[in-house]
Predict the 3D structure of the following.
Amino acid sequence: MKVIPDDSMPVPGFERHAYMCSLCHDTENRLTFNKPPPERETVSVLVAPPIAPASTVPLRAAPVRSFWGRMIAKALGR
């Protein structure tokens, strides 16, 4: 029926709740504790530095050599 914060307690969060019976209209008061919601922590967000644009110069593909081609090139000092 009614909720009133109770500041007489040393810990915040206590409330006085008033209830009324819908049949006999008898009222009752209860002291309840509603835990306050936890405080939100602030989180700093790190932003990544911008990425440099890709180079427009085409890459040269390395020639594909077979095993024997690599061995001959190594023997000739190429």
